[in-house]
Write a structure and sequence with these properties.
Shape: globular
Number of helices: 4
Largest sheet: 4 strands, antiparallel
Radius of gyration: 17 Å
Strand order of the largest sheet: 1-2-3-9
Helix content: 10-25%
Strand content: 15-25%
Number of strands: 9
Order of helices and strands: HHEEEEEHHEEEE
Number of domains: 1
Length: 157
C-alpha cells in the first residue's frame, strides 16, 4: 500500500504540472523547452516590467501588413530574430485547464482572451490566415490580412 502511494506521489510530482515544466521564465521572455523557441512574455504593445512583475501598457491589434513593421522595430530593440509563430507553436501555448484566458498567465500575464495571428495561411482558402483564440483555445483559418488581431512574437533558440 505504501509503495503505491509513494508511486502516485512521484508520478504527480513528475508529470502533474508538465505544461509549466516546459517553460523557463527569463524576465521579459520565456524559454519553451518543448518547441526549442523563446516567446516574448507580453503581447505586442505591452512591455515587461520587472518592478511590477507584469506586462504594462495596452496590447495593440495589428493588421497583417503592420506586423512586418512591428517586427522590424522589435528586432532593432531586442537582440534576436523575432518572428510570428507558426500555428502549431501558438497552439502549444493553449492551456485547456486554465479558467478564463486559455493561456498560463503565470508565464504570459495580461494576455487578452482574443485571437492572435500566426504566420501561416489557410491552405484551403489562401486569402485567410490561421489564428489561435485564447478565449476558446481553438484555431481558426478565417481572418483576412486586413483584420486586426493581437500578436505575440517568438524566436528560435
Amino acid at each position: 500500500m505504501f509503495k503505491n502511494q509513494l508511486f502516485i506521489c512521484f508520478f504527480i510530482l513528475l508529470y502533474g504540472n508538465s505544461y509549466a515544466s516546459n517553460f523557463i521564465d527569463k524576465g521579459y521572455y520565456v524559454i519553451d523547452l518543448k518547441n526549442k523557441i523563446e516567446w516574448l512574455k507580453c503581447t505586442t504593445g505591452q512591455q515587461w516590467s520587472d518592478k511590477k512583475n507584469s506586462c504594462v501598457g495596452i496590447p495593440v491589434k495589428l493588421e497583417y501588413k503592420a506586423i512586418e513593421q512591428a517586427n522590424t522595430m522589435l528586432n532593432e530593440q531586442i537582440e534576436g530574430e523575432w518572428r510570428l509563430p507558426t500555428r502549431k507553436e501558438l497552439e502549444s501555448l493553449v492551456c485547456k485547464e486554465c479558467k478564463g484566458v486559455k493561456i498560463n498567465l503565470e508565464f504570459f500575464p495580461d494576455t487578452p482572451a482574443e485571437p492572435f495571428w500566426t504566420s501561416q495561411r489557410n491552405w484551403w482558402s489562401p486569402k485567410f490566415f490561421w489564428s489561435v483564440n485564447f478565449f476558446t483555445g481553438h484555431s481558426y483559418g478565417r481572418f483576412v490580412p486586413e483584420k486586426e488581431l493581437f500578436v505575440r512574437f517568438v524566436k528560435d533558440r
